[in-house]
Amino acid sequence: MDKYPKTLRDLIDCYQMLPGVGKVSAERYALYSFFNMSEGEIIDFSNALLSVKKDIHTCSNCGNITDSDLCDICKDDSRNKRQIMVVESIRDLISIEKINEYLGVYHILNGAINFSKGITIDNLNIDSLTSKIESNEVDELILATNATLEGETTARYLKELYSKYNIKITRLAYGLPVGGDLSYADEMTILRSLTGRRDY
């Protein structure tokens, strides 16, 4: 017999859906929700979850997350719109933003080429980037895909694709470990990689 009522068991199962949350942690979160959170706090928590799914979408310009048409970075007139850093994911963008040194804008690919998983360039978000380059809106393209086989394959493809245009193409100077994920790097490593980027 289950030691918890079905309603509480359902909540435990929901918490277990979160990454890194095992059975014990999920039970603790569920019991905390029942014993320690007021009805108002639970309503606020539930509404916040619903709002994330309902109100958050991707920026029409770069692919970042936003609750309006353009994200805060794209709307910021102090950013250099002609310098675009290409990253694989929103998590990578957030990691780079933490160093507070990069003043350009971003383009999020939503992945990297991975032939073993059937992911080709057609599955990535590059059409809007190509449109900007063809419209002569870009001076420098910084390829900041991860230091993995997939990331390097993607960077090489983009270099070949855009090398015919009159733009500077650079690559982060990876003090990052080969096979590493940009979103796990510390801020100083990312800063050194950014300032030491090289022509590619």
Brief overview:
With 200 residues, this protein is α/β, with parallel strands linked by helices. Helices cover 42% and strands 14% of the residues.
Ordered list of secondary-structure elements with their pairings:
Layout: H1 6-16, H2 23-36, H3 39-55, E1 57-58, E2 65-66, H4 72-75, E3 80-87, H5 90-97, E4 104-108, H6 127-134, E5 140-143, H7 149-162, E6 168-171, H8 187-195, E7 198-199
Parallel strand pairs: 3-4, 3-5, 5-6
Antiparallel strand pairs: 1-2, 6-7
In words, what does this structure look like?
Helix 1 (6-16) crosses helix 2 (23-36). This protein has helices at residues 6-16, 23-36, 39-55, 72-75, 90-97, 127-134, 149-162, 187-195; strands spanning 57-58, 65-66, 80-87, 104-108, 140-143, 168-171, 198-199. The protein contains 8 helices and 7 strands; from the N terminus they run H-H-H-E-E-H-E-H-E-H-E-H-E-H-E. The strands form 2 sheets. It has a 5-stranded mixed beta sheet. With 200 residues, the chain is an alpha/beta fold. The chain is 42% helix and 14% strand. The model has no long low-confidence stretch (mean pLDDT 90). A hairpin with a 6-residue loop joins strand 1 and strand 2 (65-66).
